[in-house]
Queue: 4 jobs
Job 1
Amino acid sequence: VVDEAPGDGLVGLHNLGNTCFLNSSVQCLSHTPLLTQYFLSKAYLNDVNTSNVLGHQGKLAQLYATLVSSLWSNNKKKKAYNPRLFKNGIAKMNEQFAGTEQHDAQELLAFLLGGLSEDLNRIEKKPYIEQPDSDGRPDRELADIWWKNHLRRELSIMVALFTGQYKTELTCSTCGYASARFEPFSTLTLPLPEDLKRNITVVLISKSGSVSPLKYSVRVPKAGSIRDVRNAVVRLVNGFEAESENESDGDDDGEG
């Protein structure tokens, strides 16, 4: 039960140097409704695992609970919150986030998801489980086995909200036997497509000197040559000239 009606959560976070990575991660988690309700209602207190050596003995869960409580306070005058207490707390647990340098938001998010999951893990003694091979089983059946085995070791609200499975398959090039696995994941790192072009800034100077120098920016292949730059500039300049001529023709047509 929530002690008082919560606010709308529309509260900003002060930037402590270069901590936008922290602010963006926290706002994403804070606006996950089921997770926030779980902390505001203090239901998390029933799941705090202080004996898990892989966690932080419940300290991270309590630290995050305090932060959420502040962000969702019904104090309508509060437009922004200083997360220094939270920032200092996670820095003590992971020195990587000490100081005010910029970090990758994905790295912090992975730390929070993993740390909170361990702090709130209902499994106090994790059994050793050897995951089975596919052995010709249908994907749905094998995935279900792997997931149930995972829940025998990891059972928390973080797993329920943020964990999925991805399939990997290894096929023997000799006999053709395929072995499938359904690994759990909470974050996925996806590569961005490589840009095969680059921007080149060119200053165009008229040979006659009748026109002031003009600066253009053109995109050319990264492995391109001076000819590519020249052709790109010609296309750009010709395009501008054609556009200007069209505008002039339009003005002439409108005259009475």
Note: The mean pLDDT is 88.
Job 2
Amino acid sequence: MAVVRTSFENNNEIGVFSKLTNSYCLVAIGGSANFYSVFESELQDVIPVCYTSVAGCRIIGRMTVGNRHGLLVPSGTTDQELQQIRNSLPDSVKIQRVEERLSALGNVIACNDYVALVHPDLDRETEEILADVLKVEVFRQTVADNVLVGSYCALSNQGGLLSPKTSVTDQEELSSLLQVPLVAGTVNRGADVIGAGMVVNDWCAFTGQDTTSTELSVIESVFKLNDAQPSAITKEMRASLIESMT
């Protein structure tokens, strides 16, 4: 599996309508069947795909933040939605509502399974819940002088893509904080809102239909998607085969 291009009702902002982690995937209700089938065909056998809304909105990728350990949803989330998500997600994933002024959590927090970058003005309490539920180390940061860290970068445990306006010194600083390689780039033919334009986990990524082949190759290389599961295994098998023949 590598990078898959898709669109939500002709909209390229995949990261707005879906949330992808290593243990589950949330997809907004009310899209076309095609959008769902793209996610299901790639993920069905590996992780659960859950259809839901959050606080009555379809922009679930911007409202929630999560990783393989947990999921945080804003306080406006209804009990029914919470139940729906709980029933679909693995038992090991903790789900928690958060009382936070900056309620679009996906815009103000970017995280992988180990670290989180957060908006400088995020509540102390939210920061503690974040560290506790998602089991991450939290850093207050900006990306390219922008406080909406969740919108302007995409992270996995393999690497990260930042807004093209990020300076080299910022890239290096963030890279040493996160302990993963980072590059500055774009999605959807030049869009700098990375978090809204794509979703990624450790073995696959989904981007908007407009993403160019150059952008795809940058995404593939920084998130190490070429080495993801199947091909890495075949490489190892080939290596051992060649060794046994020589």
Note: The chain has a mean pLDDT of 90.
Job 3
Amino acid sequence: SSGINAEWPLRPGEATYINQNFSQQCLKREAKTYKRPNPFANEEDDNEPSSVAYRYRKIPLLGPGAEPLTLICRCEVDAVTTSANGEEKYMNIKALNEWDLKGGASEWRQKLDTQRGDILTTEMKNNKCKLAKWTVSSILAGSDLLKFGYVTRSMPRSSGESIGHSILGTQEFIPKQFAAQISLDMNNAWGILRVIVDRCMQLKDGKYVLYKEPGKGILRIYKVPLNTFEEDNDDSDEEEEGK
């Protein structure tokens, strides 16, 4: 099909593309550097990796009557900003994209300035999992701020990979306060993680897939052969070598 509901605009690639580019557009040219290099930088690749910092956090996983465990987590920080008193603050930057262009027109262009709260409430209702994931990531990283950008298509009815986008506005939150706003209970989240870890610790050595039932609060664990998913990587390598 063609138009705004074609395959390319609706697939996850557009949302990922918007997020990556928006976070980079918010940065200044004077980058803050760290002693250790980007762990994902490839010297053989001429393309420079996106500007992002990684923080490694050590977090104790406690539970009543349970054996203490330690979680080592690699977290992303998109930017560093300076407050009015000169204090450095970590920031995560994410983009909300308007995808449901009713009648081919952008409602965000008309309502964002006067009804931003209503637009964000709608996003909370329709994309609560995504917002919760971003919020948890910011809290784990120890970020002081979580910045959202409101992005829509420049030409609503355009199609294909040449679709352009416009940034209509931005909004900043303190992650823990935003978690309360979307009813995200971090104590409950840590409890769920502890249950999953305890269940996995009971399994025999092997490779497993953790699968969530769509639209249901059910998690399933499937055991798969050790070479599962490796064949796809091998095929990709062979295709690259054959080019």
Note: The chain has a mean pLDDT of 83.
Job 4
Amino acid sequence: EDVPPAPAAAAVLQGKSELCCICFETTAEFIECPCAKPVCAGCMTAYLEDRMSASYGYIAPVRCPCCRAHMPMRVLEKFLTDETSLMYRDRAYQALNMRCPNCDQTTSLLRAEEDPDGLVQLLESMDYNGLCPVTDQQKDFITSTLADCQRFSNGLLATEELFLLLQSGLGCAPNTRHLHALLPQVSDVERQAALFLYSLRQHPRTVTACCCYPMCFKCQIDSHTHEDMSCEEYLRRDELPDDVRRCPSCCAALFRSDGCNHVLCFCGTAMCYACGQVSEQCDCHTR
């Protein structure tokens, strides 16, 4: 799930008393949201606990409770309990879990620790766009990529925008090796998962983290035996009951027991249960 760009990063402020825009209590410790509205520590903690506990099965971006802009985790961690912070991080890793058919282990494609200089070392050792050895163009790309990662971490750059910038600079779509080198430059674990998931939805063929076994992330099968059809067509080959829908992003089968037509898949995609389309493309309410 992507987030609207924030006009400025949120910041924790102390000293000057402000009126919380949620509970209307005066406090000396508050967080100034991207929209410059103050929210007290108590309200922010309650909001974050509810937001992160509700994101079961997927990783939810944290938005400002006032203007809905992205809020960096490095600022919000002060208001989180250790348990909630660990749970949120675990769900980011679980969103990229794959079961390896070779060793039957379930591991995440998102890695916990990487070399912070991995991106530079990777790009400097690569022959991309036919440029080898290192050129000024390649050095400029490394510099701009590091700056783009910082903007992306702060919610100032959308996932699709960063992906297209990387694709343009590399001369090809970023693969798993590129992403593993890049992610240490992204300080927000939710943003790391969002970028990795976006890349895998565009180009789902990858390898497992344990055995480097070839897999399709979308199909979750060890080989593409359906070369004559897309992943979506392959997963939709079995007819589903009338009251079951497939997620337009990950193709998971979903059943709604009650509630309205606006549903949220485990992968984080918001969709209309009536027509089966992504919410932004649905026009059921206009009919």
Note: The chain has a mean pLDDT of 77.
